[in-house]
């Protein structure tokens, strides 16, 4: 097993946690040689001589073979990771935005430089979803991946349902418990889930898709009336990130609030937990479950990746890298669309209407919509309109 | 990707299912060349020229590179697998008894002959537990594996609790639904779970342990009163196979009915489902969940193994193979021990007693017992005595 010399970028809660574990567990045979930070004045729980504000102290150090990148700024992270890979260092990162936006280039750099670039921590915290998609579902017969991949929104939705809290209070509780950022936009608008889904889609189906081409609706448009509708039907609302592939190899990548039955597997996933269902012709339906948000799950996934580098593990992407999306969606789904009266909703967007409800306070329509029509409707971006999939 | 020529032993429900899938999915590039069966008279859903009753038609055919072994008889299976490995063929098997009893020899044969021997289907049906233990938890910091690994007993226990059925009726329902064998002894006495646990322990901890050294209590001694006790305390009873490793590398392998809280993760595993919790210093607690009993899960796991052979996957057992057990258990646990009055139970087996209950119909004692004492007590083998772990 290889002994690793590590250069660490970032010393926030995750970085510090990793430093502590690696210092204590000598059997891992890893050694943090240098830690690059932005603010040299801040007090740190590690020897002062470890720290530097100069990235080159890591990037130009030939004895450092692994870079662990844990900084917030996606653009700066990309520069660091690119340089590290080009200098023949393996890289572990948890930066889903940076990866989703530069996936192909990063994979090509990894291949060209014959190093490893691992990022299990970027998707579903401590759940080994990428490793499983790489190793176990490496066949042509994967049908779908459906998951609750964002712990913050799942925590908020759970509190809203089980404790009847308002969105605002549930968000506050999530922030107080460390499950949501102070600026929660990326989470609650579904951006984070979209980034994760685009990473999953490459490992699951060998399809490269830009986050911009994934249909997206967050949880901020949901109204009390929508939860009431769900409760009446014995359903719960979860933010599900999903992608199915049909027999003609068309994919339907979408992040959208979704009604599910409480007793269904994804209904078991509550609070800050994540869970992913993997459906395959060969392997039946599989379910992976674990903590998705918070300090510890991210640290643990990063540590697992570091551990895997000791035996030169790398993502092989055996399913290839095909262009994932050609500008059109070839599926239709049943949706619920809710809104306040007075909003002039173009109901011809529905292929067929199943239910239609009006009162002086609220209206909703349920029925089938093609995903192309849904995209063109503008409803996904409209904060006044709830769109919930069945 | 390699094209595979397969020789199949056994054409029961799993064998036939695999034949069908491989015939339909040409993209898998696998081809079943010969199927060896016992009874040449039986009608089969495949061309007659595929069948033979002579094992050598597969074993001596140099163009066959993969043997898929799906027969019931563990001894005959062992001979087939040994010969196949020695002839340089890779092998996929679902025969947990055969593997648990001959694990070391089989692994040595695999290494010596530089072939693959895969058996994901032998443990927890379609859940990729071995693959995960091999690939993701390949570090020195795994603390425990706790699982519901037998679908038949989990189905029976679920029915007994949720529908208040008697053991006999629940067993009958399990048999009618294909989740229990006509002769259910191996399942209900915990033998099947023990075999699976011994396989898990090697992949999880790199420790070789004979099934005979795993403490074992099945579900047949459980009485109504035990379920009543559980209900009163808000607990449910599950047959849990578990192994923890302590800081001195002592392991505590045990299969025993266990009280758990309904809301705990393993409490979510009902009916024929299996679920495994993996605890590690690095990777937080992970949970893998899927179908454990029945035709389809076994077939799907076998097919996944076949698929993995296309890229030469093999178990590396990077944690090594150490002798797992030195005749003593170094742990103690809290147990509930229930029995009918009149049975002269030696209570000095308990290190300390927490509760003690007597009525004219039933008695129970709860308290801490060292696993060594438990083994020596004879209670595990006594069908009159319920032993349930907390």
Description:
- Chains A, B: Pfam families: Homoserine_dh, NAD_binding_3.
- Chains A, B: One of its GO terms (molecular function) is NADP binding.
- Chains A, B: Belongs to the homoserine dehydrogenase family.
- The structure is a homodimer of 390-residue chains.
- Chain A is of the alpha/beta class.
- Chain A has helices spanning 13-24, 56-59, 74-86, 96-101, 103-112, 129-135, 151-162, 167-176, 185-188, 191-205, 224-232, 295-309, 371-377; strands at 4-9, 30-36, 51-52, 66-69, 90-93, 117-118, 142-148, 207-208, 215-216, 235-244, 254-261, 273-280, 284-291, 322-323, 332-339, 352-358, 363-370, 386-389.
- The first copy, chain A, has a 6-stranded parallel beta sheet, sandwiched between helices.
- In chain A, strand 4, helix 3 and strand 5 form a beta-alpha-beta unit.
- The A-B interface holds A 1, 21, 25, 27-28, 125-128, 131-132, 135-141, 265, 268, 280-291, 296-297, 300-301, 303-304, 307-308, 311, 313, 318 and B 1, 21, 25, 27-28, 125-128, 131-132, 135-141, 265, 268, 280-291, 296-297, 300-301, 303-304, 307-308, 311, 313, 318.
- Strand 13 (284-291) of chain A pairs antiparallel with strand 13 of chain B.
